[in-house]
Amino acid sequence: MAPLGRSIEDPGTLVAGRVEVRLVRLSDAEPLRQLLVDNRHWLQKWEATHPSGRGIVPGSVVLRPTIRSLRRQLKAGTGVPFVVRYDSQVVGQLSVSEVSGGALQSAQIGYWVSEHVAGLGITPVAVALVIDYLFGALGLHRVEICIRPENAASLRVVEKLGMRYEGRRSDYIHIDGAWRDHESFALTRGEVPGGLVARLMETTDQ
């Protein structure tokens, strides 16, 4: 896969109703650390791990160096690290990774939100905002989300967004101490000519 070939500018704050998505900042370090600590049980079974067993427990270290590292993806044109906010409070993260240019023009999305706001419809809106940004501002052609088959909440997100199921990837990512299967879902720009946020709102209102 060829990289995007240019740096990625700050998209500003993406907003739909009470949901906001913006680039992660150093000032988000402590709120995110606290969320990771408070949601340890909620998130652990979905967290990526290193096959060697080495790794850091999320929330156990100062996150400022991690945030600096994430923001360097912008200059490299390889990723876009967001925080998700609800009623102006940070409630989770959304990461755009594997950004590719060339003949592929694609990216992957991963996300998590705090248990205390789960079920409020925040994640589908946040993902839709970011996909519209990737298709519009960055001009990408395709976005993919890979989800463990046991993750019912995440599967509901892609269902609400109308993402196309593309099949199972066996032993795809090392999660919670073992190689785990993932279900792959995708969307191309031509499938949502009017924007994904608009389509989501239409289906939600029905």
UniProtKB/TrEMBL annotation:
GO molecular function: protein-N-terminal-alanine acetyltransferase activity
Cellular-component GO terms for this entry: cytoplasm
Domain N-acetyltransferase: 19-186
The UniProt record lists the keyword Cytoplasm: no
Keyword line: Acyltransferase, Transferase
Stored SUPFAM superfamilies: Acyl-CoA N-acyltransferases (Nat)
Family indicated by similarity: Belongs to the acetyltransferase family. RimJ subfamily.
Protein name, entry field: GNAT family N-acetyltransferase
Source organism of the structure: Leucobacter viscericola
